[in-house]
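Hey team,

Sharing the Apple domain-containing protein run so nobody has to redo it. Sequence (473 residues) first:
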Amino acid sequence: MLMQWSLLAIICFINCYLVNCSWMSLYIPKLDATCVLAAKAISHKDVLHIKQAYCSMESCVAACFRLLPSCNLIKYSPLAKVCNLYYENATRHILQPIDQIGQSMHLLLHSCHKDISKIPAGIIVQSEYQRNNSAKIHTPSTHKNCEFFGMPFVENFYGQRIHLIATSSLQRCIAFCEAPTYTKCNGVLFSAQEGTCLLLSRARDLPLLGGIIPTLQTSALFFIILTCYNDFDFPYAYSIPRFAEIAPTVYNVFNLTVSLYQADFYATKAGIRIGLWETVDDMYCLMICLDEFLADYCDGYYFSYGEKTCITFSIRKKYALPNSSLNRHIIQFSDDGMLINIVKDLRMLPLKHSNHFTTEEKVSLFQFKEICTVQHSVSNVIPWINLVQQYANISFLNDCISICRVIRNFGFCLGVAYSKESKVCFIAVLGNNDDEVYLNEGFHFLTLKDCSKGKRVLIATLKLYSKFIKCVH
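Structure output:
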C-alpha cells in the first residue's frame, strides 16, 4: 500500500537542491488533473502577491491553476494550511538555495495534465487488492443500499471519465453514479476534503494494472460499486396504480397546464430513472422535470427532503399519461409512510477515511507546567467525533488546548477544533461510528493525547502555534 505523504517528506523535498529531485506531482480532484510542481525560491520583492487563502494543498494548486496565466508561484504551509499565490514575470525551474523557509513550501506551478502518462514526475507502482476494503452504504436519494469496495488509486486512470460533480457526501456521490436506470457508471473517485465526486466507468473484470501515480498522495479515494438493491420491500401483491384514476393537483406554470398526480414510491417501478439532481425544494424539482433541456421526456419525479435531491423519471409507455406541449401530466412520487431498511455497516467509515492521517506535535501548557502530545489532522474531514461546545475570543491555540486539558479528566474532551482567524475554539468528544465533522477553512483539529511534566527550558521553546505564525509570515 502506498505510504501517505507527510510533513517530513515535504521538508525533505524542499531542502533537496538537485534539479532531478526538486519536482513533485499531485492529483487535484477539483481539476481531475495531475499537476507538476517544482521547488522554486520566492523572493517577495520580485513577485506580485495575488491572494491568501486557508485551504488544503490540493485546493491551493487548483486556485492557482484557475488564475493562469496570472498565477505561477505558490507558497503553502502544510501545518497552518495557508495558501499564498504569486505571479513572477520570469521563472526558473532550478531550485535556488533558501536560507530560511521554515515549514513553508515554495513552488512553481509547472503544468497540469489530464493524461497521467505525460507527467515528468511520477512513481511507478504495482497494484494489490487490500483486505477488508469492502462495505455497504445507504443512499437515501435513490432508496438503495449499495455494496462497494476500495481500489488502489492508480486504477482510476483506467476508467472512463463521465462527469465531475461537487459533493462532500459519499452517499450522494454513489447515488449520482447509480441513479440512472441505464448508466455506464460503476465507480467513483471521491474526495470528502475537496468536496468532489468523479463518476467513472471501469470494467469490473479488468485486472489490476498498476502504473504511474503522482509523487504525493491525494485526498481522493477510488471505489467500485458492486451492486445496489432497494432499501424497502414491496407490499404483498403490490400492483402499480392507474395514474389516470388519481385526482391531480393542477398548476399553471410558464403558460403550461401542469397536472401533478401523487403516488407512493413503490410506483417508481413504472418509470425509467433519468438522473439525479441537487435541488433546494420540491418546486425546483418540478422545474427540472419541465425543462426539456435538463430532463428529456420527464413525466415523474421524487424529491428527497433529507438529501435535497431529485430523481427524474420517464414513465414507461404502458403506464404513461398523455402529454402535449401545453398540457403536462407528471407523477409526483412520495416515500411517506414507507418502511425503509437502512444498512449500517461498521466497515463503511473506516474505508471512507482510509487515507485520513495525522502528524504528531508537542505543545506546552504553562499553567499546568506540562508538555502535551497532540495529533494534528491534515484532512478537513474528521471521523468519529462530535463538536459539543464553542468558546469565542480565544486568541491562542494553547488556550484552546488548555480548556480541553481542564475537562478531559471528566471525559468531556477528546480534542479541539481551532481557528486563529476567527478566534473560535470548539471542544470535541468521541462520537459514534457514523459521526464525522467537516471543518471550515482556517480550522485545525488536534487530538489531545498525553501530558507530562516538562522542564521549564523545554516549555519555553515548545509553543506549537509559533509554528503556525512562522508558516503565515
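The chain has four domains: 7-121, 126-230, 243-334, 357-472.

Ping me if you want the raw files.
A.
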